[in-house]
Amino acid sequence: MPVGTLATVKSLDPTELKTAGVGMLLANAYHLHLRPGDELVRDMGGLHEFMRWDGPILTDSGGFQVFSLAKLCTVTEDGVGFRSHIDGSTRRFTPESVMQIERNLGADVIMQFDHVIPGQSDSATSRDASERSLRWLARCRKEHERLAQQNPEQEQALFPIVQGGIHSDLRREAATAITGMGDWLGFGIGGLSVGEAKPAMYQMLDVVDEALPQDRPRYLMGVGFPADLMEGVRRGVDMFDCVAPTRMGRNGTAFVPEGRINVRNAELRADTRPLDESCSCPTCSRFSRAYLRHLFTADEMLGPRLLSLHNVHFLVQLMRKVRETIQDGTFSAWSSDWLERHNTLKASAPTAL
User: Which domain holds residue 316?
Assistant: First the structure.
């Protein structure tokens, strides 16, 4: 899922995303609550109408901002007090208010409000946050059901989030507690890719894979580099999101099968090849590496747009291939070969002319 934090995937038109094969987008409840306001989005017909996207949308609950904006928030059992990073105004998020915000936004899949902490946190801190997230989940579900009764025509799937840091016992306990709370349409896996080592993240995915039902989608939150997608699927994950493809595209880095290319490098100055000869995206179909380098060195806005579009297309095509190999029974061997070949090309810092 490309990330459209503020109801836009930065620099890309929804039609371009649809043409690239994107099936679902993510937007952020915290940021949209601050600007332009979730009630305004509701009055404009909801996110789908507001941003002219006719596919599914998932909204994060703002739990990640408890981690990323830790200096601007205070956590209590009731909820989280935020100081807006925009104007300094104070806001309070509770499980109940977040359910109302996400209903106002009108996404198809909404996430519970959870307590996210740094990935390397100790067992006691991780237990405290995980158990609080479970208590908040119960409140989210109750409010979600109450709001659904008021407007039964608006269907939304509420996903719980498995927390527990990098501690196997806590992850198992959280997964067991969540599955015992009801019949969920899908599950989030949170609190990863927030500072912990990659092997620890993969270990937690193995633990959660064993603990969660096999017949419901699992969503690994905030993870989206190519190798992480592959490793996640190998461990039972179905859904991903990350700002990486567009953020790296804006900064001049492109995903290719062998790793990454920094288009600012002087060696591309007269390179007539496309970024990726195996890619069918508009960027690779029409433009040379030399032209893309020129756009970035000249600070032309088309450059970040073209690289963002390519990176999104690259990940969508990669996941399409993943689905094909799962269906034909060759995923295990194919993914091992892909991972062995990936990262053979190391992206270097841009060099001067």
Answer: 247-341
What is the residue-level pLDDT of the chain in tens, covering all 353 positions? 999 999 999 999 999 999 999 999 999 999 999 999 999 999 999 999 999 999 999 999 988 887 788 888 999 999 999 888 889 899 999 999 999 999 999 999 999 999 999 999 999 999 999 999 999 999 999 999 999 999 999 999 999 999 999 999 999 999 999 999 999 999 999 999 999 999 999 999 999 999 999 999 999 999 999 999 999 999 999 999 999 999 999 999 999 999 999 999 999 999 999 999 999 999 999 999 999 999 999 999 999 999 999 999 999 999 999 999 999 999 999 999 999 999 787 544 454 44
Q: Do 276 and 155 fall into the same domain?
A: no
* Cα gap 203→209, rounded to integer Å: 10
What is the set of active-site residues?
60, 241
Residue 5: inside a domain, yes or no?
A: no
Evaluate whether residue 258 is within a structural domain.
yes
Q: Within its chain, how far is the Cα of 180 from the centroid?
A: 26
| Same-domain pairing of 150 and 222 | yes
- DSSP annotation string for 210-228: HHS-TTS-EEETT---HHH
